[in-house]
Amino acid sequence: MALLGLFAVAWAMTPIPESTQAAATAQGSVIYYRDGRTVLAKQGVNRRAVALDKVPRHLRNAVIAAENRSFYQDQGVSLRGTARAVWSTVSGRQLQGGSTITQQMVRNYYSGLSQERSAVRKLKEIMISLKVDRSKSKDWVLEQYLNTIYFGRGAHGVQAAADAYFRKDVSDLTLSEGAYLATVIQQPTRFADPRGDDLAAARSRWSWVVGGMVTTGAITPAEAAKAGFPKLKKPRDVFEPEGQEGYMLDQVMAELRRRGYTDEDVNQGGLKIVSTFDKKLMEAAERAVTSVLPEDTPKKVRTGLAAVDPATGEVAAFYGGRDYDANKFDNAFSAEVPAGSTFKAYVLAAALENGLGLGTRVEGNSPMRVASAPEAIPNSGGASYGRVDLVRAMRHSVNTAFVDLGQKVGLDKVTEAAEAAGIPVDQLTPHQAAPTLPLGVASVSAVQNASGFAVFAADGVHRRAHVIRSITGTEGKLKITEKGERVFSERTAADVTYALTQVVTGGTGTAARLHDRPAAGKTGTTDESASAWFTGFTPQLSVAVDMFRDDNKPVVVGGAAQSGGQYPAQIWRAFMAEAMAGKPVETFPEPSSHGHSAPSTDDTPGHWGDPEVGTGDPGHWGDPVPEEPASPTPDEPTAPAPDEPDVPDPGRPTAPPPPDEPTVPAPDDPEPGPGDGTGDGTGTGTGTGTGTGGGSGDGTGVESTGQAAVPVG
User: Fold this and answer.
1) Are 513 and 639 contained in the same domain?
2) Which domain holds residue 421?
3) What percent of the chain has pLDDT over 90?
4) Does residue 240 carry a catalytic annotation?
């Protein structure tokens, strides 16, 4: 009577827990490439919950034969087994357990029940198991059990186990394979990849399970005799990112956090995350870099590539670096280096948005003195061009012309245009007062620059760059779209694009020319080749390529200091040739034309097609831009060399470097030639604009600070 009373009290005081253990239902997330089918990575707990009707009946029967043959007849507990378990706990002796499937499910599924061995915990488990058996169906219990139990090989639940052992969906398992999964429940670690004696033990246990299925009537003796021990797949290694996978995974995780998802959400929430990355284009990006650069390229020379879809803002591909394990600081998203003359595209956009036209004349002679600059600003190679229109200034990357243009428009307007195109304002404002701002002293990443140029390809509409297309969770599917914001007029975008096509067809970027379609782009090279760029686009894709060094010294490859028109342009072309293969050829819009007959004066805006530009008729797509003789003397060159040779930084001190700063290259690097680069990676670079410097410092993600080097072309 007393025992009944105690049981009644225990029954009343032990309700079924309202919550489940987080680990019991946790499902890891799967990250896919943009097709939504090709797996990029798996994060967190390896579990995919599956409904019971998706589990083959022979697998269910095998588990019952192995773990609890009276499952459908008992009341959730085994009195004999429980008595053995309690005696084992009290005496300390290890006897065969007797927990039913219901008890195992309760222990693993509900909160408040630990795995410790105590009589109180065991009694609580029994009470809850009895109540669950009275309130839940047997099929419900079996479904939770099959999705909760650990099967070894890092697999939680039958769906993950089917993949881990046989690379199959659970619904496709054979009788023999299902029986093996039932076998491993008893000793998941030992039977995960059995060899020698462990394999013999696994075979024996498997035969016992199959025999149990005969005993319970689940299969016939003939079916059992026909079954053979299954062939296990080789265990997968723990996920280790290879190639660009680590960089991709880092960017997806970073964006998930920005969107409010925690690491716990990803590791336990069972999310399906579709990235924007195109697997083939990712491979093409890596191929473009590794195939173009020579094998003896110094290890300290780093290359970044980013490709952005102008229509969506999606980052379709990028190149983060040679070796994720060696350096997790990627070259495309994280590394910010001086933009060089690629920044001139934003300067031109600012001018056009503020009333100037492609025919506007600016001063192209070298050197140029600006009151706020400590020293004169030269053109590349010291070349002078006289007064030039903005198309010719862009084609030949005339520094003084864009410095003059920046003064006419206002540096605040230049900053506003670059910010509108997506360049973060905190990267611009430190240089806003510098006359050399139009020459690209501000540092940007490859993704930022590709996204900025995508605005011109998208007719003046900016969409923020992003790396996730959709996120599917328990609350449904969230599609990621970036609402476009018009930041430039269609006319401005068309005119900037036209000027940039001239760079590719007959200017400093001819190495990037595509044989089958029009392309627009801009080279960029900073002082002493501390960074070299080519950023360009077709209507379908905007791509930026940059090269720089960890230590901010000159980018020297094959004994030659690099400019944007050399390896960066070649890499860009190699990638785009592959990326555009099979894509329809799309043309750019024609530039604007007003057809004014009166020539513009030197200090007033001109118009494309004005007589001063070279023709009295409106300009047309593909028309050559008339060139104007350079001044003031006929013996000065009228155009820089195509590869944008370096010129001295007017703000660079003439004093030699400190004694502890070596001027010789590292043993594994080619001789860089004169100069010691734009900085030592710690912020000692020089220039006219105080603010963030170029490069990525020591490769740890800390950008070097100090004065930025003056870009030259």
Assistant:
1) yes
2) 286-708
3) 62
4) no
Tell me if residue 341 is catalytic.
yes
Of 331-345, 530-544, 599-613, which range is least confident? 599-613
Catalytic choice (99, 176, 341, 529): 341
State the Cα–Cα distance between residues 169 and 183, nearest whole angstrom.
18
Please name the residues in contact with 258: beta carbons below 8 A apart, sequence gap of 6 or more.
none
Contacts of 582 (CB under 8 A, 6+ apart): none
Q: How far is CA 292 from CA 566, 570, 571, in A?
A: 11, 7, 6
If you compute the radius of gyration of the chain from its CA atoms, what whole number of angstroms results? 34
Within a domain: 37: no
Instruction: Evaluate whether 640 touches 396 at the Cβ level (below 8 Å).
Output: yes
How many separate helices (H) and strands (E) can be counted in the chain?
21, 20
Portion of the chain with pLDDT greater than 70, in percent: 75
Catalytic position from the list 29, 67, 419, 703: 67
CATH number at residue 525: 3.40.710.10
Please count the structural domains in the chain.
2
Does any domain span residue 237?
Answer: no
Please give the span between the terminal C-alpha atoms of the chain, in angstroms, as a whole number: 97
**Alpha helices, DSSP H only, in 185-237?**
197-215, 221-226
Same domain, 167 and 301: no
CA dihedral 537, 538, 541, 544 (to 10 degrees): -20
Of 322, 355, 247, 260, which is closest to residue 592 (Cα–Cα)? Answer: 355
Between the CA of residue 450 and those of 226, 339, 533, what are the distances in Å?
A: 62, 11, 11
Q: What is the rounded average pLDDT for all residues in the chain?
A: 81
